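Ticket opened by: R.M.
Priority: normal
Category: complex prediction / small molecule

The reporter submitted a protein together with zinc ion and asked that the result be attached to this ticket for the collaborator who will pick it up next week. Submitted input follows.
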Amino acid sequence: MVFWLDAVWAAGGTRVLNIVRICGIFIVLFIGGCVSNSSLENSAARIPMIDAHSQASKYVDLDDIIPLMNKAGVSRTLLSARRGLSWRKISSLALANPERITASIRTKGGIYRDNSPRYYRRLNKQLQDPTFGAMAEIMIYHAEKRKGDAPEIDVNFAEPQPAAAISAARSKGWPIILHIEFATLPGDEKRRAEFMGMFEEFLRLQNGYPVALTHLGQLRAKEAGRLLENHQNLHLITSRSNWYAINQAGQPWTEVVAVGGLVPAWRDLVLKYSGRFILGFDNVWREDWGWFYINQAHIWQKVLQSLPPAVAHAVAHRNAERLWGLPTANVP
Ligand SMILES: [Zn+2]
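Result attached by the on-call engineer:
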C-alpha cells in the first residue's frame, strides 16, 4: 500500500494523491462498515457455546486452542490433560485465559486403570491447585479403541479409583462426569441389565447430586428418556453425537444430530428435558483439534438455531454455567 501511494505521488502529484486519499477513506469506511455490521449481525444471532468436555495431549499445540475456539464460536472449554501432557500445562493455560478455559482434573490413564498410588498423588496435587474448576470424565466402561491406543477399561463405581474422584468432585461442588459406553458393554442381556441396575442405584445414591454422562453414555433415545424421567440428577453431554463425528469414528456413538438436523426422538427429549443436556465436543486426538472441530461446532450452532431460544441457550451454555458455577458466556 505504501509502495503504491509512493508510486502515485511520483507520477501524478497532489491532485491525484487527494483523489486516492478520498477514495481510500471511502474504501476503509465501506469495508469497516461491512465487517462490523456483519460481525454484529452474526454475534447477535449466534448462541454462545461452552464445550463441557475436551482434552489435549502432548500432540496438540496448546497455542492453537484459543484461536480454534474462536473459529468454532466456542466461548469456553472445560479442558483436561491426557497422553503425555502434564496437568500443569492445562492449569497454566486456564490461568492465562480465565475467560476461555476451565481446567478440568484428569483422572484417566494407565495409573488409574492399574490403581497405582501415583493416581492418588496426581489427583491430590490437582485438587490442591485452585485453578481447577471441574472434574473430567471418570472412566467406568470404555471399549478398546484404535487397536489398544485407548485400551479397554472396566471399573465398578465402588472401586477405589472412581470412588476417590467422585468424592473429590462432590467435595468441590462439581458435577460427577462418567464415561460409560452402554452400547458396547460386554456380556449377555442379563449382564447388561445388571450393569444398568447398578448405574441406576448409583444415581439414586447421589441424592439428587448432578451426574453427567459424556457422549450421552451411548444410550439410545428410548433408554435415555426412561433414565431422564426416573433420575432428576442425570445429565447428558452431547460429545460425539453428530453424524459428522460418527461417520469418521466407526463406533456405536449415539446419533442425536443427523444430516437433516436433530433426530426427532432426541429433539423431543431435548425439548422436554432442556435443563439436562450439555453441549460438549470431546476433542481428543490431534486431528480432532482442527477443521473437524470447527465443522462440528458449526453443525451444532445450526441445530441450536433450530430450537426455541430458551432451550438452545440452556443446552449451549446455561446448563454448564449453572452446574459448574461459570460466568455467563458470550460469543467469542
Ligand atoms: Zn469419554
